[in-house]
Amino acid sequence: MDTRNIEALLRIISTLLLALTACLVRFDSQTKHLFYTLTKKATFKDMNALYVLVWIDTAVAIYSVLQLVRYMILPGFRKDLTASNKYFGWGIYLLDQAAAYVVFGGNTAAVQASMFAVTGEKSLQWMKLCNRFTRFCTQIGGALVCGYIAAIVMAITSSISAYALFRLYSPNNFLVLKGK
Amino acid sequence: MDTRNIEALLRIISTLLLALTACLVRFDSQTKHLFYTLTKKATFKDMNALYVLVWIDTAVAIYSVLQLVRYMILPGFRKDLTASNKYFGWGIYLLDQAAAYVVFGGNTAAVQASMFAVTGEKSLQWMKLCNRFTRFCTQIGGALVCGYIAAIVMAITSSISAYALFRLYSPNNFLVLKGK
Predict the structure, then answer these.
(1) Do A167 and B163 touch (CB under 8 A)?
(2) Cβ neighbour number for residue B179 with a 10 Å cutoff
(3) Residue B166 · residue A166 · CB < 8 Å
(4) Least enclosed by CB within 10 Å: which of A130, A143, B31, B171?
(5) pLDDT for B87-108, tens place per residue?
(6) DSSP for A134-158?
(7) Are residues A154 and A161 in contact, defined by beta-carbon separation less than 8 angstroms?
(8) Which residue among B113, B126, B163 sits closest to A166, beta carbon to beta carbon?
(9) B104 vs A109: CB contact, 8 Å cut-off?
(10) pTM above the 0.80 mark?
(11) Chain A hits for B97, Cβ within 8 Å
(12) B126 in contact with A, Cβ within 8 Å
């Protein structure tokens, strides 16, 4: 099995997981009656971290699709990287790294923000909210698990990009390409 | 310049930055008079994310020191990786990746938690606190900037570990070592 095929498969998986995460967070809402006629609706806009997460996951999913399009349409890039397009390989590697860290970071920020909603923070007098909006919080929790799986898949993808790029270099000389 | 020397330099820098971050957060405290005799002392223990960050940064700083010790004491590992110790190279690469993601994630969670303390979250009735504990919050902010620089340095270190490992492999066959 070629690195390019594994890479394409991983990109499809991460695109689907990112889209799923974004949709689960975006379309999550729960309305609760507090007193007589007073109702409160919980949505992803109540927390900045969730709002940012939806944008990050959407953007990175589009990036993954673009990478797949490159793989499927441009015939020159279906083959393994060679010395002649190593700068292209560097670009893909750096973008993949950045994408993996951005998804991981956005997800971690959302988990941290949600933790406050689950447990509250007594010393700062922040009250917990998930005891009232249970279904809403469960759906967010599921979305964040998906998001972490996507981040792990993207970390593996960036390792494969690193492998495809760095194996072009000589093991004896620093940053010198290996002769064929 | 050899990869091993760049790697050692980056590890020294990240150890220092991680230790600095951990100390800045750990020893930050501010006492404020609220009413007549009522005082409130802000420390890193008020927020779980900061508490976890101190532990993460301390643990990863110790890991970096151990990597430096390996580099300085064991003569066999001062040379570049060769095909004979490639499994060792895989171990270092995976540990470096994990360390970089853990530091980045811990720091991002702390930033997210601190954002609530700076801005509050009106829709959830969480009040901001940094208008009262300004000096405390400024020191935490400085620590988190250090933490992010450390995370970037560690990401570069793990790229170098990837380079040192993957350049041993053949560019034509999948996961086959290149002949000398």
Answers:
(1) no
(2) 6
(3) yes
(4) B31
(5) 888 999 999 999 999 999 999 9
(6) HHHHHHHHHHHHHHHHHHHHHHHHH
(7) no
(8) B163
(9) no
(10) yes
(11) 155, 159
(12) yes
* Integer Cα distance of A121 and A137 in angstroms: 17
Q: Provide the Cα torsion B64, B70, B71, B74; round to 10°.
A: 180
Mean of the per-residue pLDDT values for chain A?
A: 87
Tokens in use for A103?
């998804």
Res. A180: pLDDT tops 60: no
| Residues A16, A110 contacting (CB under 8 angstroms) | no
Residues of chain B found within 8 Å of residue A126, distances taken between Cβ atoms:
116, 124, 126-127
Which residues between 133 and 162 in chain B have a beta carbon less than 8 angstroms from any beta carbon of chain A? Answer: 155, 159, 162
**Cα A3 from Cα B2, distance rounded (Å):** 28
Q: What is the pLDDT of residues A128-155, one digit of tens each?
A: 888 888 889 999 999 999 999 999 999 9
Nearest CA in chain B to A169: B167
